[in-house]
Amino acid sequence: MATFNANLSRSGPGLLLRDILSGQDEQIEAVAQIIAAAKPDILLLTKFDYDHGGVALKAFAQALAAWGVAYPYRFALRPNSGVRTGLDMTGDGREDTPDDTQGYGTFAGQGGMALLSHHPVDAQGVRDFSEFLWRDLPGALLPRRDGALFPSEEVFAIQRLSTTGHWDVPVLLPGGQWLHLLAFYASPPVFGGLEGRNLRRNHDEVRFWNLLLSDALPMPPPDAPFVLLGDANLDPFDGDGKHAAIRALLAHPALQDPAPRSAGGAAMADAPVNEGHRGEAPLDTTHWPQARGPGNLRVDYVLPAAGLTLRGAGVFWPAPEDPEAPLLRTRSGEEASRHRLVWVDLALPLH
Q1: In terms of Cα–Cα distance, which of 262, 275, 279, 271 is closest to 328?
Q2: Which of 75, 93, 328, 334 is a good FRET partner for 307, with 20 to 30 A between their CA atoms?
Q3: Residues 178-210: pLDDT tens digits?
Q4: How far is the first Cα of the chain from the last one, in angstroms, to the nearest whole number?
Q5: Domains of the chain
């Protein structure tokens, strides 16, 4: 199984569907080729625009089938991104900007999550935690100014924790066993004003799983076996963010960290963008080439339950000389996504 921030998000509703159906979009073609090369049985896509009825997701699955990888089962829920609130959520004096939604978005559904699977998904058994209020998280790091909640009590009476979503999705494996997928896509820990709103929210979105697995939330922990996967937008050591949150999750006794690696990430260990980094370059899952950017980071994760048997793990980031390296770019030379597909192979049956 795998997670991939494929950057299949566009600037307006319906535009992703348009680009998929055109058959001419180079970025969509490049993303499809990466997925076809990796061939995961279960794939969580992050930053994939949601529409009612999953029309774009169905069209993308059909495009993938043309590349030789079929996903008969698909699942997506409306994300928090772009859901209007009617309030000034950031304290900038405005009430109808992309920042004034439940999760940043210029339209409802922008940059959501989607699941593609070879195996049946129990949509009726899904637990969706996306409406869980941020203030209800034990020890929530809510932004404050002069000791008071900022921008207002009214905001945090409705502010959800999830920027995009937190899901528990049961998938039926061969042999009749259910595997629970714990999926999420957290806010980047940057911007958010002097109060560090996004940094705090990112920390708490990651910490949500730590608390759920520790039976410290109003809802019960997930049934075993399970796998936690998605884009945490948080590296254990480098870049922006409160790194302790992801380190605590990686060390949680209910999980194991397969530490997936890539030759492509390793090849950039001494690149100027990685100067001063503490994390191991082969573990990186993103490539930010900008001279003033954060450099390459590990922010995408697939973390199986501690008792599951691993057969392998990796990051689809071929070394520059590898024949598959061109798959990371479009025909015009642009990157398909700054993120890399992260995969884990589990032995069946699960125990």
Answers
A1: 262
A2: 75
A3: 999 999 999 999 988 889 999 999 999 999 999
A4: 17
A5: 2-346 (3.60.10.10)
Do 350 and 11 touch, CB atoms closer than 8 A? no
Kindly tell me if the per-residue pLDDT of 291 is higher than 80: no
Q: Looking at the DSSP assignment, which residues form a beta bridge with residue 304? A: 227
Contacts of 149 (CB under 8 A, 6+ apart): 142, 143, 155, 156
CB 112 within 8 A of CB 81: yes
Q: What is the DSSP letter of 223?
A: P
Contacts of 124 (CB under 8 A, 6+ apart): none
Place of tokens 């998000």: 9
